[in-house]
Protein 1
Amino acid sequence: MNDEMIKRLKICLILLVCMFLTTGCWDEREINDRAIILGWGFDQNEEGDYIGSAQIVVPGEVGERSSGQGKGYIVETATGKSLLDVTQNLQRKLSREVFLSHQKVIVIGERLARNGISNILDVYSREPELPIRTNFFVLKNGEAFDFLEVPYKMEDMPSTAALKMFQSTAGPESTTFKDFLEGASSEGISPTVPILEIINSKKEKEKDTETFRLGGRAIFNQDLELVGFLSYRESVDRLWIINKLNTHKLTTNLLGEEGNVGIMGMNFKSKIQPIIQNDQVEFHITLSGTGVVRENNTALDLKQPKNLQIIERTFNKNLQDHMISTITKVQKEYKTDILGFGQSIHKKYPRKWKIWKKDWSKKFSDADITVKVDINIERTGVTGSPLHLKESEIQK
């Protein structure tokens, strides 16, 4: 290799190194040029227009609330005929470019939810910048804008607090738009969404008396319209039926005894057995689980097998009654199958399902349903009776 070729090779290497050192992202934007939205709220006014509320990060003030320098976010709103129109009108009010890829939470006001949310789902399924794994909530008895304005003392952003609340209590169930889309497109089950509720703090003397909490579930029909709500306790029944309940604390009063007993329930299982006779459908539901006694506020000595059987029978009876009440509410009042009964028909009687699926809400509301609950208490803890009781007060 002559000197001329060596010289050319050195020049090529130098140019190549320069190319790597000077290469950058072609669409790179500075963080200070972006309005980062962590929480979106959507409402609808009486004229049918959409109202969008954005919870936007103020970078220099995040984490500075304790020093009194700011609350870490601002809430800006815009109105439009469509959601794209809302986003465009919101941009006209901001000096920075709207940035949606870090979105964590979307909250839907109750009025909009009752009118239907199919348009919102359509936008999220088409726009690549909108994260389809954004978590989805319905605000009961209020407007989404109001939620985004409620401060939450344990977190910098209220939207982050809502997400953490759900993650700490929901077990394996998810609540993203992706999950909702999958539920809405599934046969034999209608989707639900967790509820947020604005409540008043008991500390009336403080300036900020409002806070919020996680509620039960919002029930949507196949047209993606809100038809009603489950309480938090009823939503636990739903999780048990659809086999998504891991652990849950349960408490019951004992018939004929003073006080109550609390257990940590686990290993929850559900079996739905559909039976079709004379074109009528019946469902037999078997629910099982195990429990460990965590609290005994009665005089019963739980080391005695007969007393433990009393506890088990009471739990099974009370849980069965509550489960029947929840199913009846869903079946008769809302006429919407959020429990997967239709899926069991689809699986066991596929030909019959093809005939019934168009009118499944009517078939579901007319179905006969029986429930059997079997909780087995495996452990009672270190003591059988409360330690503060005298020997004469303990029931052996």
Note: The first strand starts at residue 34 and ends at 44.
Protein 2
Amino acid sequence: MLKGVSLTSSLVYAPDLGGQRHLYDESWEFPDFSNRIVALALNPSCVFVYWTISLARRRLIQEHFMADWDALPLCLCLYDVTDILFDGYNAPLLRRVSVDPGTNNWYLHNLPSGRNYVVDLATMNHDRLFCLLRSNMVALPPDRSAASRVKIPFAKPLPSTPIDADPALRKPVRRLSSQLKREGATIG
């Protein structure tokens, strides 16, 4: 039997909706054997990160650092891995954010768009970062806002008639049209 997974369930039926009964299981609990961190792109400048650490791994970390889990200085480390074959050490650390040990998710805002990132959940050990979990690589899409778009200048629209095109022809045409109006003739 898997530790932390509830195999008993209380089945609850939703109200009758058009002759159909919907079945819900409200007793599900998140398994306690998962150790992972996931990074998701929300928009061109924001990454959402969530993580889980099992009780067994927490105990192992507590024993290794000889400190209670709630006393460990946890942080999220954001690395830019664009155009890099990332080996865990060769990417620039863009940001380090301290997080509470009771937290299991975080938003990283105001990131450069069009870049690839990896996030580590880490702790400090003698002024060095010690990675506990490493996320997947997440690619932020390029920014398509109006301010970042390339502006292409267009030429002036072509004139609708040849007379409008040449200012030298405007005076004789005006004189001719006014003369025809006096004589009672119409143009066109």
Note: Residues 1-11 have pLDDT under 50 and may be disordered.
